[in-house]
Design a protein that fits this description.
The protein has 507 residues and is of the alpha/beta class. It folds into 3 domains: 3-41 and 100-139 and 247-251 and 336-441, Protoporphyrinogen oxidase, mitochondrial, domain 2 (Polyamine Oxidase, Chain A, domain 2); 46-98 and 254-334 and 443-498, FAD/NAD(P)-binding domain (3-Layer(bba) Sandwich), CATH 3.50.50.60; 167-238, no CATH class. It is built from 16 helices and 21 strands. The chain has helices at residues 3-7, 44-50, 73-80, 123-130, 154-157, 166-180, 184-192, 197-200, 205-219, 228-238, 255-269, 313-319, 325-333, 404-421, 448-456, 477-498; strands spanning 10-15, 60-69, 87-90, 102-105, 108-111, 136-137, 143-146, 149-152, 248-249, 273-274, 278-284, 289-295, 298-309, 336-337, 341-346, 356-358, 366-369, 385-390, 431-436, 441-442, 463-465. The protein has an 8-stranded mixed sheet with strand order 1-19-15-18-17-16-7-8, with helices on both faces. A hairpin with a 2-residue loop joins strand 4 and strand 5 (108-111). The longest helix is centred in the C-terminal third of the chain and has 22 residues, at 477-498. The chain is globular, with a radius of gyration of 23 Å. The protein binds flavin-adenine dinucleotide (FAD). Flavin-adenine dinucleotide binds at residues 46, 69-75, 90-93, 98-100, 113-116, 254, 278-279, 310-312, 315, 339, 341, 390, 437, 440-441, 467-468, 475-480.
Length: 507
């Protein structure tokens, strides 16, 4: 595609960094194409907290049982499992859902983050059922595109079909056999301390290239920075052709779950749920915890019997005053991957071969078909073929997302590489949407799961630590929910110990 044609494709930029780098319409007046719309994650206040800005903290003006900080799936789940408590849920964005958030183009829903549920029995699947959301099975296993060739279920049954010489195919098979035989239970802490590259030695650059695509998408790291335990435990499920579990999702990915959950909560708790409320400080006093937040340009402090911090640890470490040093260090040691997600919106069918297809060696790692789980439903007609491209970046590339031109360049690289991967695709998207997030996924580096997370999540008297980065081994929607349930148990146990009457929770 020529440079000038590219200029005419509308690029819609949403998400992280827009608030700290406001983009006005005027900036695009000279652009050849239609103007991009800009939406933004509200990071301005968070950056003030990061930079040590001293807020004038007012005294408490309200009392609650529990204040929940952060309205991603973890914070929403905490509210859901505390129905009989007087809780207050605070979220800095103008919408609920955090990293599990769906958007829509002319009636077709697509994911901007979390895509699917791995296990039909995990906490996310259970919660979905409880909310009356039927699980929609993905059915087919992932595809892979190598050298322009689409290979269905490569690691399952089709290693003989990969377009490499026989010696290379043999190495893929040997690697699979060796990894499937690893005793994960016995070797968990040893493997979690070592990088995946230690296990990849001798299997050749092609196997490494596959992992350097799969790892960043799933846990934000290439093989050299990935815990061997994390990779092998994932692989033993992923490559197991005998495993009966089906992955499930909805159009919009796991954002469909946070949408239903937040709507359900709002229906009867509107006055207890505040968006646009950025927490600037959380601290303990003698009997209560004090949470100060900025909302409508006003600082308010609320006192609570307990606080559930459902924010990621790099933020939590800055908000919570008086953390024990080891815990603060653990929280600050957990690393986070910058992770834009690019949606190419086509008004013609372009790619519908697998739900999730891996494309090693490109600017994106994998591509997902947005309406995959409903495309065969009676009466359904695909109006738009929306393709969601997962585009994790290195931490050193984070700054690229800060500008409109950087974000646009990321989106254009995806379009360029998709055309390279599927050269027959001679159709341009009608629009490109890019959702930017600066630190959405904690990175499964060696030691994160067995060393840093256990220390980071320890309750601090009446302050409890949720969020998926309290669970691991990788960032999962189900992990966020499991963390919320654990916090509620810790809160209940704390109340029992203090002699304060305990009300029922459903966790
Ligand atoms: C690109 C991508 C793809 C993914 N794919 C999958 C997948 O396929 N399956 C899966 O299970 N998981 C997936 N995940 C992981 C999943 O999205 C997360 O594990 C999950 O959404 C985390 O939820 P959470 O509530 O723990 O945290 P978050 O979603 O990070 O929620 C934290 C919330 O706190 C808010 N907040 C932060 N600071 C403040 C403050 N100072 N004041 C108030 N609010 C604040 C944030 O705005 C946010 O809404 C993916 C993640 C990404 C980024």
């Amino acid at each position: 595609m020529s440079q000038s044609r590219r200029d005419f494709i509308k690029v819609v930029i949403a998400g992280a960094a827009a608030a700290s780098c406001p983009i006005t319409e005027e900036m695009f007046a000279a652009s050849a194409g239609p103007r991009p719309a800009v939406d933004g994650e509200q990071n301005e206040i968070c950056h003030k907290v990061r930079d040590g800005f001293a807020f004038r903290i007012p005294p408490a003006s309200a009392h609650r049982d529990v204040v929940i900080v952060g309205g991603g799936i973890s914070g929403l789940a905490a509210a859901h499992f505390l129905p009989d408590h007087d809780w207050l849920l605070l979220e800095k964005e103008s919408h609920w859902g955090g990293n599990a958030y769906a958007m829509e183009y002319d009636g077709t829903v697509y994911a901007t983050g979390a895509a699917f549920m791995i296990d039909e029995q995990d906490d996310a699947a259970q919660l979905a059922r409880e909310l009356g959301l039927s699980l929609l099975p993905i059915e087919e296993k992932d595809g892979t595109i190598l050298k322009g060739e689409f290979i269905p279920d490569m690691w399952g049954e089709n290693l003989d079909r990969i377009p490499y010489p026989a010696t290379v195919r043999e190495r893929f098979k040997q690697f699979k056999k060796a990894m499937m035989a690893v005793d994960l239970k016995k070797r968990m802490s040893e493997l979690d301390q070592m990088p995946l590259t230690a296990m990849l030695k001798g299997y050749g650059p092609e196997v490494l290239a596959w992992w350097d695509c799969y790892g960043p998408s799933n846990w934000g790291a290439v093989s050299a920075e990935t815990s061997a335990y994390v990779a092998i435990s994932d692989f033993q499920d992923f490559a197991n052709e005998k495993l009966a579990t089906t992955h499930n999702t909805w159009p919009g990915g796991n954002g469909a779950l946070t949408k239903v959950l937040s709507e359900r909560l709002l229906a009867s708790n509107r006055d207890r749920m505040l968006t646009g409320a950025t927490i600037v400080s959380v601290r303990q006093d003698k009997n209560e915890a004090l949470v100060t937040y900025l909302h409508d340009k006003k600082l308010t402090t609320v006192a609570a019997k307990g606080v559930i911090m459902a924010t990621p640890k790099f933020i939590t470490a800055r908000l919570v005053q008086g953390l024990p040093e080891a815990q603060r260090v653990a929280m600050r040691t957990i690393r986070y991957c910058p992770y834009p997600v690019v949606n190419l919106i086509y008004d013609k069918p372009v790619f519908n071969k697998a739900y999730d297809t891996w494309c090693p060696g490109n600017s994106f790692t994998d591509v997902i078909v947005a309406d995959w789980t409903v495309r065969k439903q009676p009466g359904y007609k695909q109006k738009y073929n929306i393709l969601t491209f997962y585009t994790p970046l290195k931490e050193s590339q984070r700054a690229e997302m800060l500008t409109e031109s950087g974000s646009r360049a990321i989106a254009m690289r995806v379009l360029r590489d998709f055309k390279k991967v599927l050269p027959d695709t001679n159709v341009d998207p009608v629009e490109i949407h890019i959702f930017r997030r600066g630190h959405p996924m904690f990175i499964a580096t060696p030691g994160t799961f067995t060393r840093w997370i256990p220390t980071a999540k320890k309750p601090m008297r009446n302050i409890f630590f949720a969020n998926t980065d309290s669970e691991g081994p990788v960032s999962l929607t189900a992990g966020g929910i499991a963390a919320a349930k654990r916090c509620i148990r810790e809160f209940q146990a704390g109340l029992k110990g203090s002699g304060v009457p305990v009300k029922a929770a459903r966790a």
